[in-house]
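Good morning C.,

I know you're traveling, so I'll keep this short. The sequence:
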Amino acid sequence: MQPNQTSTNAALMARRQAAVTRGVGQAHEIFASRAKNAELWDVEGRRYIDFAGGIAVLNTGHLHPEVIAAVKAQLDLYTHTCFQVVAYEPYVELAEKLNALAPGNFAKKTLLLSTGAEAVENAVKVARAYTKRPGVVAFTGGYHGRTNMTLGMTGKVAPYKLGFGPFPGEVFHAEFPNALHGVSIDQALHSVEQILKNDVEPERVAAFIIEPVQGEGGFYVAPPEFISRLKALADRHGILLIADEVQTGAGRTGTWFASEQWPVAPDLIAIAKSMAGGFPISGLVGRAEVMDAPGPGGLGGTYAGSPIGCAAALAVLKAFQEEKLLDRSKTLGAHLVKGLRAIAETEKSIGDVRGLGAMIAIELFENGDLARPDAALTKRVVAEAARRGLILLSCGTYGNVIRILVPLTASDALLDEGLKILADSFAATR
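The tokens, ready to paste straight into the viewer:
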């Protein structure tokens, strides 16, 4: 359907409010008309630089030619059979490639699904089937999805969990190591051990689940030492380690899986978002013997691993290889960090610039006081940047983090243009 060229953002917003449930949020009162690579245009013809990437879905940019060509070719063959009824090669090929990419010197198998929440939910199902245990330990500030189980594991109440309980039992939250906010690696490990001592015996815990870099939680990076010690604790008690890579996966952090940068390999990895360049697909990759714990028919879904999503994901993998996008992720991230630190030199409110690869964020505090997170300023800067033509997203437990998830295919010139808008937005909100 072609957009109505007489529409305005305001008119469409009024229609949206009348027709769409208020529970679906919207960061900006903007309606897209078209997009290309790291730019989009609204229905009024205004251009924006996209530093949000559809919340980490567009690592290969809007309408990547390889992805679009692969999808168009698949459309001429078949669009759906349900893999559990009549299978198709692209599903198998994608599973083979993900198995080969995943870290760990052991045999692996893959399950393909549709959404990140599905991947995480199935990670728990598989872990429970393998260990014959119910318990799960997650971490404060973590975000794992919007289903009942994944909400139970999410470590942030507002707005995700408000009014939606009760949540599943046997889910516990330990402290995430966060030096900026006073939680050391030792303290975080101690909180896990306290759960195993005070709340649930280790023999009832199926898995620890953690994001290599917290997404919605604020882009805090899990320290390698913490992961190593957490895995040792897990192995001691027969507990599995699940890496939730829904946001970090598909090359965002400089390796295909962020957990490739860990000193130890997770037992299960959930992936989604950017793996298909904007088309819905997700996956769960893990140790073959663990993945094979559920019996035939125990896993799957009507649309799980759709032919369209598989074709797109295979094209994304090809684009990463041909365009050396993993290397680009590292250089792009370094470029952003340099630019953001330059802004921080004149903006006292920026208390931290951090990230991994091209998963970068800044955290804002009142006059740089780390005890006073500044959510109000964060909101004003994001709004001012949009007014000037730059799409940004905020996040974090305190709502004071600005995250950058610009497509890896963006040019240096576009990055600099976006950074200039961000700097001007800070200046305008002083």
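Safe travels,
E.
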